[in-house]
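FAQ
Q: What does a multi-component entry look like?
A: The components come first, one per line:
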Amino acid sequence: MAKAPILTPQADDFPRWYQDLIGKAELADNGPVRGTMVIRPYGYSLWERMQSEVDARIKDAGAQNAYFPMFIPENYLTREAEHVEGFSPELAVVTHGGGKQLEEPVVVRPTSETIINEYFSKWVQSYRDLPLLINQWANVVRWELRPRIFLRTTEFLWQEGHTAHATYEDARAYATRIHRHVYDDFMRNVLAIDVVLGRKTARERFAGAINTLTLEGMMGDGKALQMGTSHELGQNFAKAFNTQYLADTGEREYVWQTSWGASTRMVGGLIMSHGDDNGLRVPPRLAPVQVVVMAIKGDDAVVDAVRALGDRLKAAGVRVVVDDKTDTPFGRRAVDWELKGVPIRLEIGPRDLEGGTAMLARRIAGGKSPVALDTVVETVATVLDEDQALLLAQSRERRVARTADVTSIGEAVEAASTGWARMPWADLGAEGEAKLAEQGVSVRCLVTADGGVPDAEDQAGNVAILARAY
Amino acid sequence: MAKAPILTPQADDFPRWYQDLIGKAELADNGPVRGTMVIRPYGYSLWERMQSEVDARIKDAGAQNAYFPMFIPENYLTREAEHVEGFSPELAVVTHGGGKQLEEPVVVRPTSETIINEYFSKWVQSYRDLPLLINQWANVVRWELRPRIFLRTTEFLWQEGHTAHATYEDARAYATRIHRHVYDDFMRNVLAIDVVLGRKTARERFAGAINTLTLEGMMGDGKALQMGTSHELGQNFAKAFNTQYLADTGEREYVWQTSWGASTRMVGGLIMSHGDDNGLRVPPRLAPVQVVVMAIKGDDAVVDAVRALGDRLKAAGVRVVVDDKTDTPFGRRAVDWELKGVPIRLEIGPRDLEGGTAMLARRIAGGKSPVALDTVVETVATVLDEDQALLLAQSRERRVARTADVTSIGEAVEAASTGWARMPWADLGAEGEAKLAEQGVSVRCLVTADGGVPDAEDQAGNVAILARAY
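Then the predicted structure of the entire assembly, as tokens:
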């Protein structure tokens, strides 16, 4: 019995598969203003789990949350030359407020380095006030001409960290700490994406930074997604906003700064990393729903059994939903949970109950087998661990299998049609980078020969990771 | 030894005391654009605790979080006549985006009934989709001509719930559920504010609602603060946005709706309810820091002891901070924790250590006494419970002591100079309400004779609560 596919198959049209999945799994809708999005409850629950995990890591790194206004006076943006050049084309401008034309238009924050520095310059007096480690969870606006839901939206949600330090070394170490112990740890161990850590070239750097560290993930179609960035800002904003401190030498010095962010774009990365033709596959550690316990039929014994099992799993710390909506056909409900990527379905009908078992369906590894109700809690814990590891292994295998070592721009472009390319940076250089850009291929990042993060762009042995990117 | 007061005394100038406290306790700063605010880390940690407590109650009430765009096409606002009339004067309007003038200007959400109804009308098909219970945590903008930090700001943070139901009765019951089991429970049992629950008069109702339920708190100066509201929207927005469902009768029917919100204004209410001339007093259940363990001097034994005690308290589930910054004078640190309203200070110096005790200073009940280090964890738990109850009792005592029964408008205005007045609604009426408004006194809400929430404005025995309000 052939089923009509619910989603456009990935192999037929990956972008259409992505859009189909977002609609069918009820993750998000397009907003009424071009480029904006409505994040639906299930999509938002994925984001809430991301927030919770990233927030805990940010607090472990010593930063505190705060909130800065989203309206920024236009003149703030212009104080850092590269920054304004980078962001001007993307600004949303408020010209009227309270029924009147404003004397000075205000922009909706595209990012908050400028307004935050204005306050850092008031709050920082002496070296005792440093380091100052601030984070905020906020919405930001960058007007998008070619929007794509979760990946490039006019308004998106993110966290943006902003810090001030007494020395260059301290700022540099902190940018690296965030890169590794917040972002890499979260993306690898929770999102199960085998991200590559590297540094951006001068061309790809954040507008106003002296160094940008990035995490790049390979998506299901072989393209790259920048999943998060951590910037060293040097003293660029400190000089523009006069953010100085009294050093223990008695001299006034400019602070050294970092900023770093990760956004709802990670939801897009999750979908494109782990999704398949049947829908999303959510890594167990992230999953807002790790297990759904389904009543196949609506008789009392079955409904009692699924509720009791739900309670047992909940007591064991599993994030569980009980689906006893038996007025909807079982098959339709099963397909829906599959679309939503819930790692485990435990299905119970009258016959299962008689045998003292449930049918355990694995969304990630695939397959379906009966498990004894007595031991199902232990089995679930084991399966969740296995499938978390499996997703990361699959992500790694794909990246390795679809990354080619190349020696010329032509080969790089060829490789980028199905995956990534690696090429010595010394052989490519800024000139080669510009040529690749004309063909839609970019240097995602530079890594060292042994896969580390280079200390400098011109470090001997640097390798460029080349790809088409979202 | 007379100390110069750190804050303007409340009795001298309450508004100045409020501003002083917000600055000195490092809660917030004014933003660069008029009416906006920067919420500093300690102020934001109060808000995070509020979010966490309110969010858990909202989820218990069955609502799910989602996120809708902050940019709303101007034409949406105009579809519900009262709504647009109410909000038009406060709108911020984006006229330019991405370097171009927009074809249709977009407004920054002042609240989201309109845009959410646009999507409800797509998502709701049949009675099976109801009730639809959605909440979002978001920033909103209402242009303020007379801003006051936390209380009336151009941009503020809040949660806004939006629901759709099959029947009038179901919507009404849900608005009441939120009023009582989310807001009242949180404000009374966590914020320790003895709020009065009532219904708004037609004059004070939300623009577009058929009924507004409110929670009003009496502040330290006797004025009222609206702490949260829960609205029955009837079918007003459903008709404006054509939000219909297929009933089990086979007929298409308009949904019945509610909306409800509570905002960063609650931080202002917290300050003005519990603050005193020495600073804030934070109720233990809310407090981001319940206990600070302070090293009086920096010798090793003392620092080891405060850290060990901090670990014991943390293990017992207490939210604790260890203050071993002994390079700052002890007195200055103590004053700072007092300003921030941390319920308990445990102070340890060499002599305390010798005697096996710590000095326990109570910010809420006042007083200082030695406690044995052996039993300090149990003592802390008891004191936190006592002081939570004490704050609520004080809030209640103030409200009762400063509420007068009156029989005329003149008496009401007189009573409102120091507190609240109660007057039979039948004797006041909409005409009396308008006269009071000319003198800056408003009907905060109507309650029944026995203090309940009236089912209707014209219900016999309704009593009007009258006050000046923030």
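Q: Is there any commentary attached?
A: Sometimes. For this entry: Residues 376-401 of chain A form the longest helix (26 residues).
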